[in-house]
Amino acid sequence: MEENEIHLVKKVSKELGLTYKELADNIGYTEANLKRSVSTNQLSKQLETAIKLYLKTIKLEQEIEDTNQLKKLINTFLSK
After folding, report:
1. Residue 79, class by beta-carbon neighbours within 10 Å (0-12 exposed, 13-18 middle, 19+ buried)?
2. In sequence order, what are the residues at sequence separation of 6 or more whose Cβ sits closer than 8 angstroms to the Cβ of residue 3?
3. Distance (Å, rounded) from C-alpha 33 to C-alpha 63?
4. Three-class secondary structure of residue 30 per DSSP
5. What pLDDT was estimated at residue 31?
6. Which domain holds residue 39?
7. Which of 47, 63, 56 is nearest to 7 (CA)?
8. pLDDT tens, 21-76?
9. Positive or negative: CA dihedral 57, 61, 67, 70
10. Helix/strand/coil for 12
11. Which of 7, 31, 34, 73 has the highest local Cβ count within 10 Å?
12. Rounded to 5 degrees, what are φ and ψ at 43?
């Protein structure tokens, strides 16, 4: 990880408005693990993968919600 690069844990926590504890709970890690990763400026491959999969899951859940809303809208339109 480059010196001037923002740590992935910090970046994702800030973007999602989550504390380290909340992020840790959501990805199956401990808050201590996340804090240690940030303080040592190191990121294990497993932690990186867990965060990326979590972000992908959030994106897919939003796409499902958008699709469901569109389906409702279409059904309402067709029933008139």
Report:
1. exposed
2. 41
3. 30
4. coil
5. 97
6. 8-78
7. 47
8. 999 999 999 999 999 999 999 999 999 999 999 999 999 999 999 999 999 999 99
9. negative
10. helix
11. 34
12. -135, 115
Counting the structural domains of the chain, the total is 1
At 73, is the secondary structure helix, strand, or coil? helix
Residue type at 24 in one-letter notation: A
Residue indicated by tokens 């804090």: 35
| Domain-embedded: residue 50 | yes
b/e burial code for range 29-50 (CB count within 10 A of at least 16 → b): beeebbeebbeeeebeeebeeb
CATH number at 42 reads 1.10.260
Q: Hey, what are 17's tokens?
A: 């408005």
Are 43 and 37 contacting, i.e. CB atoms less than 8 angstroms apart? yes
Q: Which amino acid is at 8?
A: L
Q: Is residue 72 part of a domain?
A: yes
Q: How far is Cα 14 from Cα 9, in angstroms, rounded to an integer?
A: 8
